[in-house]
Design a protein that fits this description.
single chain; Rossmann fold; eight-stranded mixed β-sheet; four-stranded antiparallel β-sheet; globular
Length: 760
């Protein structure tokens, strides 16, 4: 009996830690589910949207304060701020009108009229209007919510535009029998200007008259076969049987239509100039602009493969064509995110963005000769955006990163003269700056913050950057009182031993630096931008905050191959998307673990969506010595299967062996760790077949993996359901613990409909 009791006690001691772990996991689920509400509305006097009034120097904004939401009107010229109305009084009036208690969070699309005499909001399917300051109900009308933007690759129909009247009202231009015709409106006499149009090579109904009505531009179009992605919606809500559909969708290597601008003379009734010999293998032709004097027009030619980008001038007097700006690169031209052009004085000069010296900068071109007059900006830093060009005083306001010390991704705003002189910093303050200007650019509202530093908002003189008044300084004491922990910023040397790689990490709200925490990387290495957050945020969605609350350190890193650094930094991705900056990311985590011993990088997990889905699967295929567990959502796993513009931009054209080298399908046999694939069956961003082809290759390679298909869902995480499944996977595969069984948990809401992809 004694021995039996000893055995029972011993077994209890063995089982006790397991029970505690199970209870701990259950408690952590409750913590992460509560965290979103614990962080909601806990940042007081935070960042806000500025609404400038038409008169120019006044604006209104609203902000959460200790007393609730307040609406303020600011007169920038007088540096005066006053409260517009009392929200609580308004809510009492609205509640009385509706016959129910209404809180501020029930009101959508709240706005104040330009005359500050009325306010509007959406509630219960209606748009309501109240007077200010009497709070008198004025009217309500039925509100129709605008349709969400539907991303599409549908080719524009070039045959159905209506006839176009000349600016002087004397001529009507149109396409008939594939050719260009004009009609004299004084006598209805019809004349053909072209004769070479036909079924496979025809003129577009998109026509542009010259300002003097003496010439007209028409595209000669060489069409291409349309390409489609086909879908079967397994569980439609409108019928019992599956629903079949298709969308127009173009992938790398697909044929594209070609457009050849041609100029015709009205008086001579003939073609003056054709661009057909100058622009082979087009990806696109854009920005056709007639000069005001009607002597010429310009357009931008993006050659397929994105290594040649030109501004071409067609002379409507001589019929001669020439290249004004010739942008070339041995790798790629980042036309999709760094392109900028501004024509000064009808094209006498052109302000142009280029990375020709290794950094994204502005150049001033002579618009008549095509010669560079001077560099406008210069240095080992990056122009991020142009806010305003003022041709009268020849100044430019622009945003840039990397010029100030510290994090090279933080954006500041500057002004500079056309000749590159008089560079002025307009936004002092260590942080990432977001600005809003008055209509005349005399005043600016400047908000800056970092992920570990709450926002400050001030009013500045937009010409000098002088701070005129402080508008708001964020108070995060309610956030801290609820256990919120600041993210940590960290940088380490990359693969070259010289370049700083920047990232950040999240810790649990009950973080204890004396303990060890497994590490999970949230990855999105799309070369079109940089992706580590830079602005203050109380809650990071897409599983980041929830995974941290479950007891993981969640890291985010911008490795080489992403944008907003030097051209050399960016070029790492060229024909090499499988790289994804992993060499830098791994070095960063190893350096972080040395600096922060609480990081356990012995069993690193990784997850991401879309390009991040490709990256996370690539991590366990190409770097299994470091990454052990991956979850991949809606991944573009093979760049031959994804959208043409994004993939040809980085992987090049024509299609080469590098596409297969970067393919998760062709390299699926390399899998050594654990992989969880998630895909929406109706994903119209990335062809869902891309994920299924990975699954097929894994099966053929006799590999174990997990697959979750989301019926009816698109390019998304699968709501809170998908979030819970991802968390469960990492709990099981990295912590080696049993997650709370979803089938034992009762719910009063649909988790699949609760979106986790929207930023808070």
């Amino acid at each position: 009996m004694y021995q039996k009791n000893i055995l029972i006690i011993a077994l209890l001691f063995v089982a006790l830690p397991l029970c505690l772990k199970a209870q701990d996991i259950k408690d952590r689920y409750a913590k992460y589910e509560a965290l979103k509400s614990l962080t909601k509305d806990k940042v007081l006097h935070g960042a806000f949207e500025t609404h400038w009034l038409k008169e120019g120097h006044s604006f209104w904004y609203h902000v959460l304060t200790q007393e609730g939401v307040k609406y303020y009107l600011v007169d920038a010229s007088k540096q005066k701020k006053k409260e517009i109305f009392d929200v609580n009084t308004l809510l009492k009036k609205v509640s009385a009108e509706c016959g129910e208690d209404v809180s501020y969070n029930n009101l959508e699309n709240f706005s104040v009229a330009d005359d500050i005499k009325t306010c509007e909001f959406v509630f219960n399917g209606c748009k309501w209007q109240y007077s200010i300051p009497s709070y008198k109900f004025i009217k309500k009308v039925e509100y129709t919510r605008p349709e969400p933007y539907n991303w599409t690759m549908d080719q524009v129909d070039q045959t159905n535009n209506p006839p176009v009247i000349s600016p002087d009202g004397k001529w009507l231009a149109y396409i008939k029998d594939y050719n260009l015709f004009i009609k004299d409106l004084s006598d209805e006499n019809e004349v053909a200007l072209s004769y070479n149009g036909g079924l496979g090579l025809y003129y577009s109904t998109y026509l542009q008259w010259s300002p003097d009505s003496k010439k007209i531009m028409a595209y000669l179009v060489q069409p291409a076969e349309k390409h489609f992605v086909n879908y079967i919606e397994s569980s439609p809500t409108t019928q019992k049987q599956p629903f079949y559909s298709s969308i127009e969708y173009y992938k790398p290597g697909d044929a594209l239509p070609q457009f050849y601008p041609c100029i015709f003379s009205i008086s001579d009734k003939k073609m003056i100039s054709s661009s057909m010999d100058m622009i082979p293998n087009q990806y696109s032709i854009e920005n056709i602009r007639w000069r005001k004097n009607s002597e010429s027009l310009t357009f931008e030619y993006n050659k397929r493969g994105h290594q040649v980008y030109q501004v071409i001038e067609m002379n409507a007097e001589t019929g001669k064509n020439r290249i004004l700006i010739n942008e070339t690169s041995p790798t790629f031209i980042d036309y999709s995110s760094k392109r900028y052009r501004y024509d000064v004085n009808d094209g006498e000069e052109i302000i142009w963005a280029s990375e020709r010296d290794g950094w994204n900068h502005l150049y001033l071109f002579d618009g008549r000769t095509g010669e560079v007059k001077n560099k406008i900006t210069d240095g080992n830093w990056v122009v991020r955006n142009v806010v305003k060009v003022n041709p009268e005083n020849r100044t430019i306001i622009f945003g840039a990163s990397g010029k100030e010390t510290g994090d090279p991704y933080l954006i500041h705003y500057y002004s500079i003269d056309f000749d590159g002189s008089n560079l002025k910093l307009l936004t002092k303050g260590d942080g990432n700056h977001k600005v809003s200007f008055s209509a005349d650019y005399k005043y600016m509202v400047d908000t800056w913050s970092k992920v570990d530093t709450p926002p400050v908002t001030v009013l500045r003189n937009a010409s000098t950057g002088e701070q005129l008044m402080t508008l708001e300084e964020a108070d995060i004491s309610p956030l801290l009182a609820n256990g919120w922990k600041k993210p940590q910023i960290f940088s380490a040397k990359g693969r070259d031993g010289k370049t700083d790689i920047w990232g950040m990490f999240l810790t649990p709200s009950d973080f204890d630096p004396s303990k060890k925490y497994p590490v999970i990387e949230y990855i999105y290495a799309g070369p079109h931008s940089s992706h580590v957050p830079k602005d203050f945020n109380a809650y990071y969605n897409r599983c980041r905050q929830s995974l941290a609350e479950m007891g993981f350190i969640v890291v985010m890193i911008d490795g080489m191959g992403t944008s907003n650094r030097s051209k050399a930094f960016h070029d790492v991705c060229w024909k090499n998307l499988k790289d994804a900056g992993f060499s830098d990311r791994i070095l960063w985590m190893k350096a972080a673990a040395e600096n922060y011993p609480f990081m356990d990088i012995s069993n690193v997990g990784i997850y991401g969506k879309s390009a991040g889905g490709q990256n996370s699967t690539g991590a366990v295929l190409f770097h299994p010595e470091f990454y052990k567990v991956a979850a991949s959502v809606c991944g573009c796993h093979d760049n031959r299967m994804d959208k043409i513009w994004w993939n040809e931009q980085w992987m090049g054209w024509p299609i080469g062996p590098e596409y297969a080298e970067s393919s998760n399908v062709d390299n699926a046999y390399r899998l050594q760790g654990d992989l969880f694939l998630i895909v929406g069956e109706m994903d119209q961003n990335v062809d869902p077949a891309s994920t299924y082809q990975v699954a097929d290759a894994l099966i053929k390679a006799n590999k174990d993996f997990d697959l979750l298909t989301l019926p009816g869902k698109g390019h998304e995480w699968g709501g809170e359901y998908g979030e819970r499944r991802i968390i469960n996977y990492f709990i099981e595969k990295i912590m080696h613990q049993s997650p709370v069984k979803m089938n034992t948990v009762g719910l009063d809401r649909s988790l699949i409909k609760s979106d986790i992809d929207i930023d808070n």
